[in-house]
Amino acid sequence: MIGQLWINGEWCRHDADPAAPLHRVLRENLGLTGSKDVCGEGFCGACLVQLDGAPIAACLVPVALAEGAQIVTIEGLDQDPVAQSLMAAMEAEDAVQCGMCFPGMVMTLTHLLKTCPTTDREKVKRALAGNICRCTGYERIVSAACRAAKDLVAADAQKVVA
Amino acid sequence: MNLKTPFPDPVFARRDAFDKLRGRTRYTVDEACQGHLQAYLLRADVASGEILRLDVSAARKMPGVRAVVTASDAPHRFGIGVADQRLFATGRVRYKGEPLAAIAADTLEQAKAAALAVDVVIRPLPAVFDMAGALASGAPLVHPDWATHEVLLETRGAGRGGNLAWESQVRRGDVDAAFSRPDVTIVESAFRVGRQIHMQLEPRAAIASYADGRLHLIASTQAPWTVKNVTARALGLSPARVRVTAPAVGGGFGAKYGCTIEPYAAALALACGKSVALVPSRAEEMLSCPCRENADILIRSAVTRDGRIAGREAVVLMDCGAYGGEQIYLTTMTAHTLGSSYRLEAVRLVSRAVYTNTAPNGAFRACNGVYNIFALESHTDEICQAIGMDPVEFRRRNVLGDGDLGSTGQVFQGDVLGPMLEKMSQMRSKGATLPSDDGRLYGRATTVGTWFVFVGPSAATVNLNPDGSATLVTAGVEIGQGTMMQSLPQIVAAELGLSPCDVVVHQADTDAAGFDVGVGGGRTTVSLGAAAVAACTEIRQKLLALAARLLQAPASELSLSQGRIDRVGHPGTGMTLASLAQEAMQITGPISGSGAFTRPGVAAMDGCAAGHFLEAVDIPVFAVHDCDVAVDPATGQVEVLRYRVVQDVGRALNPSAIHGQIQGGVVQGLGYALHEEVTLAEDGAFRQAGFGSYRIPLAQDVVPVEIELHEGAPSIGPWGAKGAGEVPILNVGAAIACAVSRAIGVRVQELPLTPPHVLALLQGRKPALQLHHPQDWPARPGTNPPHSTAAVSVAG
Q1: Which of B82, B98, B628, B790 could make a disulfide contact with B642, Cβ separation 3.0–4.6 Å?
Q2: What residue ranges do the domains of chain B occupy?
């Protein structure tokens, strides 16, 4: 049986079992390995993707249920200006270590920055309740999100002035 | 190295961050998920038993199955101190989850289905799950044939026998006399800690292929050469026939320091000639994780009224699980963790690795140190209470200083811990006062700890390329710590007068790089860095000789800087390194250098250490941690309010990277101290099977760590550096336990301090810890273990 998914602005066909979890289809059938397979239970956030605009743990979604949804993976966030600003802030804060959790972190925090542009450390930490990092001790990730929020507000202000 | 010579580029961002953020980095698990056969391990479902039947013929006929391998395919024993392990349970099962067979199929589902078709009959045998049981008289032996195991590492005077996998001892001075003195107070303490699971996000993973008579393993490993050598030994191959490469590793923390899963993939690839990927699920990863070992620590000290430690003795029991592995080696560490930090007039330590029918333990960041420092610092606070001395004052008076002796009699150099304690008090005095009127109980503590750089042999090759860039080739692996991205290119750049951007670092490949012990023990920057410095020294000599000829100037008047070679004091008069490297093509051929490093061998005092693999430490590393906590008396919840670290780094080659390691290491330690808990079910398996049941710190659990780096302590490391990634976790359990103990006014003897545990302490419901080895006093080697302990002298 052939399934069809709308991912990062294009149709992708696959022959996976309709009950297979979405993250495994992304990784094993479609070669999109940016979403990581870490816990498979929805705890760690490493496999987060956007489903119709909201971040969701792909490991909890049977692939058939994702048909018809707009899926954006970490690979598709490359051109997103908010994600770009966040990723630049992550580099500026020297936040990255092993890197396995970061695609999921970027998914969660990009959504936070879009839905809550005036964020603060407490809000960022609450937003990260479903993202596990074992290397960094989180604080730099939080700093990067706050830095990106400021940068985005400043960029918006400039746009208004211009 | 004179600290006055500035290190050229201490600010250097990591080059792998851009791709890691975008999900572009290809970890082993990303390579594994497409285009390979998938492997699955059939594991025993009992903790101890005799294998009566293991018939895989039906499994071989299952759909998609390409290979099934069992004990007969890998009959050779391997291990770290003692060769006590085989790849598969052979005749006897020793822990629940021990592999019985490995299956490779077109899909993972097919491999799992085939595993169900294996006909297994195991007759259960008596099992022993805790160290008390294992050391009790008449206990069932995990290895009835222990005496036939080959001892692989030479030491003097180790003890072995029955369920005692290894015993090492330290004795210096007359401890009995110290404890008999009329002017001392004797303080005795007991501690117990459980296991800690790494929970690195990328599971262990391996892809094996076999071509042209050689195995190639792509592995998520910290130690490519260990994987190469152990795989070869387990499968009975020449190591020369095994190549190991290691892409970016998604976290290790010690879980990938040993060779654990790679040989299964290798055996399957050998059997079918196809490439085979083995990636355990999270649940499998946890049930077979080489955890930080659980341990029981009994310690007592004889202390004078003015706070001098006249004598100290301790017995440390370390659970190695069903096979000796790292724990045999780690018995050595007790001398340098529990036996360190303080001046001791006399000391006697016994450190025992004990077999149980549980999953084998392994290495975890600051192995052995984390719980021994918890025990030592808690014991120190108990001493202070007993003699009525301020805990910081006691530490000031007693910490090791210049010329003091460590437990094995090595002479420590430099006053390090004393000035670090002073820095910590200054840091504290600058902090704002915390509110403390909300009904919670408040406590704070300052703790000290000693760790060391596990140096050991490393090789490095540096090629100076015709474009003036350099390529560093080593077997070092980037596991997230940043060494391969930051300090190593920085060191090569500093040596050759380049920008670190112009230094390419080759990914680990045992076919390209010389031997290396592995990434662990805080050794990577030091050992690989020192080998890289040696390689660069050879390049410098070649460059200077060539330039002297071309520029008609004596080599002594030339210097390398900013990608150029010029006369000293006359920038711009010489030539670029690129043009010099191109000139070399016509005159000498391409320029390269090779370098090597190994431990220099600091001396211990003769006769102080028995059964030790390292009698003295070459580069000690010190840490001072301080924290404030608040305890909710209604719930037992501990909140960490502030956390401060002063860390001895020798020289900070990249302060930002070190701060990142400290924040991450402290948070990992907070998990250990407060909520990471492994418990055993009745069948000896872990009750925790995922992130839901094993609680590691989340963003809302953490505080920003206030950090000061202490520079200038003696170090033989490159540019005076010490390892900085291992030590941040060292004192955390200690600092939290001491602070909580002061907050609630009750002795803390066990970690983690979960809310139920703290509540039980507060309500007086927790009985004092009774350890099962009081008969060990005095801690004389070889007096206790049953089963006729043999004191073996391996080195003769």
Answers
A1: B628
A2: 28-125+204-279, 295-454+603-762, 456-597
